[in-house]
Write a structure and sequence with these properties.
- By secondary structure, this protein is α/β, with parallel strands linked by helices.
- It folds into 3 domains: about 70 residues, no CATH class; about 60 residues, no CATH class; about 170 residues, Rossmann fold (3-Layer(aba) Sandwich).
- Helices cover about 35% and strands about 20% of the residues.
- The protein has 11 helices and 10 strands.
- The chain has a 6-stranded mixed beta sheet with strand order 7-6-5-8-9-10, sandwiched between helices. A two-stranded antiparallel sheet has the order 1-2.
- The longest helix is centred in the N-terminal third of the chain and has 21 residues.
- It is flat and about 95 Å long.
Length: about 375
């Protein structure tokens, strides 16, 4: 019975997983899904799932083809379509289902649906050490004494020599009964990554544009965390001046004024140089903007910063241009013209929430 329940549960989980995967594109563009994130799980609303089953009729009724009436008569005894009239019912309605799923499972589904290649991290200079208990020995420090194994050994000894009294079950371990945990230190190479998020918060970037960035950043973050043991995130906002902020400020800042993108790239390069050695870290700068920059001179400065400071250290530089009715959209054209063929540069145009799905594939499809 237990095995049958386990099989049924596994089958149900497969059905739910299939439903989530088939609706993943719709989930991705919904910002409220991010708000349902728990400590390590997300609550997903799943459409109603119908499982095939038999429905038995009332035993007082006859079998098939029995009862009054002739072939062709209306089943309900009235001609034509039903009127739809009737009293309010007292039965419960049909409802959807909410299931909890881990971020790792969701990231795996994202990778399967978008056919994303697994990332092969570079650099293994970061090594973590952990103690692994490997067995039990007769010698060792008192701090590692295994109480349960010591007690069982003493019990065996007393039973063997006939000194154990069930009516007075006192167990007194001697030196030979003591057992101690044995251990060794394991060294595990750990591939770490840092994501530097940059966002234009000038007057032309409205709430809708920032919501698109918020949703896309969540899914980018989920995939990268699935591929790395440790992920650090840094956040930069900029208008004419760039500054580093926390995550909450990054997604909820309301600014106005002009745009000088080079200020963000310069700060990003400084953060990488100061805190993340290229031989030990996998570096992913993401920049989101509506493509409006202060001047062509500042755009040239941006391209110089990318070539000289950011691209040599980064696994990949990703620029997402969010469509805005107030932005010129020129910056992605300038990047494409000057760096469009660079193997570490990925450009993506994000017209609306429907475009987030394709943009994620643009950014993550190379497997860098």
């Amino acid at each position: 019975m237990s095995l049958r329940i386990q099989n049924d549960h596994a089958r149900f989980k497969d059905i739910v997983r299939g439903k989530i995967k088939s609706n993943l594109k719709q989930y991705i563009k919904k910002g409220e899904l991010i708000g349902k994130q728990g400590k390590d799980k997300i609550t997903i609303p799943v459409p109603r799932i119908d499982l095939p089953h038999f429905r038995f009729g009332d035993k007082s009724q006859g079998g098939v083809g029995q009862g009054e009436g002739q072939p062709g008569d209306s089943v309900d005894g009235e001609e034509g379509e039903g009127s739809g009239a009737g009293k309010a019912g007292q039965e419960g309605g049909e409802h959807g289902l909410e299931v909890d799923i881990t971020l790792d499972e969701l990231a795996d589904m994202l990778g399967e649906e978008l056919e994303l290649p697994r990332i092969e991290p570079k650099g293994t200079d970061l090594v973590t050490q952990r103690i692994k208990y490997t067995g039990v020995n007769t010698v060792g420090p008192e701090s590692l004494k295994h109480f349960k194994r010591t007690y069982k050994q003493a019990l065996r000894r007393q039973i063997a020599i006939g000194s154990y009294d069930p009516k007075n079950p006192i167990i007194v371990p001697v030196r030979e009964d003591r057992r101690y945990r044995t251990w060794r230190i394991e060294q595990k190479p750990q591939a770490n990554a840092v994501i530097v998020y940059m966002m234009d918060v000038s007057g032309s970037m409205g709430e809708e544009q920032k919501e698109i960035v918020r949703i896309e950043s969540f899914w980018l973050d989920a995939w990268l965390r699935r591929n790395y043991d440790g992920v650090a995130s840094r956040y930069i906002i900029h208008d004419a001046v760039a500054k580093e902020v926390d995550k909450e400020t990054f997604f909820h800042t309301r600014e106005s004024g002009g745009t000088m993108i080079s200020s963000a790239y310069r700060l990003c390069a400084d953060i990488i140089d100061n805190d993340y050695p290229v031989d030990s870290w996998n570096i992913y700068p993401f920049h989101f903007s509506d493509g409006d920059n202060w001047s062509i001179d500042d755009t040239r400065t941006c391209i110089g910063l990318l070539r000289e400071r950011i691209l040599p250290t980064a696994n990949q530089f990703s620029y997402g241009q969010v469509e805005s009715p107030y932005g010129s959209g020129q910056f992605i054209k300038d990047l494409s013209e000057n760096l469009g063929k660079h193997e570490k540069v990925v450009l993506s145009e994000i017209k609306d929430k429907e475009s987030i799905y394709g943009s994620i594939k643009d950014f993550l499809g190379s497997g860098r």
